[in-house]
Fold:
Amino acid sequence: MNINEKEAKELICEIGGRVYKNGYVVANDGNITVRLNEKEFLTSPPGVSKGYMTPDMIVKVNSAGTKLGGNLEPSSEVKVHLKIYEHRPDVNAVVHAHPPYATVFAITRMALDKYIMPEAICGLGAIPLVPYARPSTLELADSLIPYLSKYNCFLLENHGTVTVGPDLMTAYFKTEEFEYYAKILYLLMGLGGGKINELPRDKVEDLIKHFTAGNSFMHPGYVKF
Structure:
């Protein structure tokens, strides 16, 4: 696996613009990384708005987080992303953001575990609530380890979201789906006394069987009852 570095830098900037314009981050929040090959990774820099990044700002690091190239320094959050890459060889991109509706669930410590929409079931699967750890620390990186083998989307307690994918567009679209699902669930909880009609287990299993067949990016714990 070798990804074109120039194209990857340009795509990181494009996705950064989408994340910023959609309100999933503000100011200099969030982080985006891409695996170039087994030993090299690209990361967005600290102190720069994701909506105003340019390719020359993107930093290249090795698997230890040591800077290999770039005009700026690597984000302090890169250690968390590198831990994901270490434990998930199928993951080539990671997006961390603070989308408002999903972050409300993170702060109220409410797991996004309702099976209400076929798109969310097939596109996201179960989403674990990862216990709080201080941002940009090895503690946060280690807190993700128990969940990495089974899930592709993570709700960080009192913090935000992390989504992963085999490529950057997939990881980003999972962030979009994540926030949309959280918004729908949030609105449902305020309507009709909070009554939520979940799809029954047999319908969920039928969806998985017919819409996720042949997709190697699904994991055994993809849906949990």
Observations:
- DSSP finds seven helices and eight strands in the chain.
